[in-house]
């Protein structure tokens, strides 16, 4: 059982995600947090948007805090639904669009999270999913 993501592991996940961002020619900010949403590592590629620094961190924080990918919060937080207004809570740190994913250990416990920002939501999700896939490879070793 993994207790928490280490800095070395965070660097591996960031590297995998960065390679995908380079492949699609879109500079990104990639963040890895522990299970409580506290920063382990963050990487801002050259020319990535400054706003993406806090957005990627908040995506990772949201995934860690709520144990779910951020894109799964979009529909429940629409007007009239049960989580309407969620993004205005927790000092504005909750993100309700894609690019944040929790990282679970082999028993399903959340041990960290990954957040990516810098492109269209679909691009953020694509890049983040590469980091998540790399985590799953490492976890399975």
TrEMBL record:
Coiled coil: none annotated. It comes from the Archaea. This is ATP/cobalamin adenosyltransferase. Pfam families: HbpS-like.
């Amino acid at each position: 059982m993994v207790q928490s993501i280490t800095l070395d592991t965070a660097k591996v996940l960031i590297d995998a995600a960065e390679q995908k961002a380079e492949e699609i020619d879109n500079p990104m900010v990639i963040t890895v947090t522990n299970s409580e949403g506290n920063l382990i590592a963050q990487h801002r590629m050259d020319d990535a948007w400054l706003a993406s620094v806090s957005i990627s961190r908040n995506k990772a924080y949201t995934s860690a805090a709520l144990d779910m990918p951020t894109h799964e919060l979009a529909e429940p937080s629409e007007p009239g639904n049960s989580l309407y207004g969620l993004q205005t809570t927790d000092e504005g740190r909750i993100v309700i669009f894609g690019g944040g994913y929790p990282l679970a250990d082999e028993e399903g416990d959340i041990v960290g999270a990954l957040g990516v920002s810098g492109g269209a939501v679909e691009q953020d999700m694509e890049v983040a999913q590469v980091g998540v896939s790399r985590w799953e490879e490492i976890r399975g070793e």
